[in-house]
Amino acid sequence: MLRQTALLALAFLPFSLGQVSEGFESGWDQTAWPTYAADCNQGGKVSLDTTTAHTGKNSIKVEGAGGYCGHIFVGTTKVPSGDVYVRTWLKASKALTDSHVSFITMPDSAQGAKKHLRIGGQSKILMYNRESDDATLPDLSPKGIAASTALPTGAWQCFEYHLGTDGTVETWLNNKTIDGLTAKAGVANANAAQWQKSTIKPKITAVYFGWESYGGDTNTFNYDDIVVSSSRIGCA
Prior knowledge:
Layout: H1 2-11, E1 19-22, E2 35-36, E3 45-49, E4 59-64, E5 72-76, E6 84-92, E7 101-107, E8 116-122, E9 125-130, E10 135-137, H2 142-146, E11 157-163, E12 169-173, E13 176-177, E14 207-213, E15 219-229
Antiparallel strand pairs: 1-15, 2-5, 3-4, 4-15, 5-14, 6-11, 6-15, 7-8, 7-14, 8-9, 9-10, 11-12, 12-13
């Protein structure tokens, strides 16, 4: 009886105190985890992959085609109203190149209609990109590039980030802080001059995982054990 009461109480908590967790072991619920492709969709593909997983037997596979319209994502609109923490285990088949790509995209109402906060790569390193002004975090200078890191391929990686209501951005790869992908409110960052010129504080309405290329790059990503929460998750 106590367990039932606790579960009922949890069910009525506002989502800002709860979380979404998905490992796809019961399959791919396309209502809860719909595909997303803004403006156009030409060649990208999402499927349930039963051949590889971080845990269990299933993961989501995204086969991204080249060019902007080759993009495709899958994700959730269940996002906390305050601070947002996202953790995914992911596996990339190809290394990031010098070309600009995204593997996570988030509609961001703080930037305006149809604008996104994006996580991906350029100059062979991980970075954020703000669509409204094309700012990057870190700056794509030699020092900024050195403050980020490459994304390993062919094995599962734990990727986690935090978007604060005060504009803070924090990012971890396999529980290690990526200095170049960190920007804190009121703290000057030599590698975030472009990013910190703006007063925009991200207010995302969804989180989508997939592939978007602004050149000809293609890639295949697998995603598993995704958590969207109002507090730090970690890799355990």
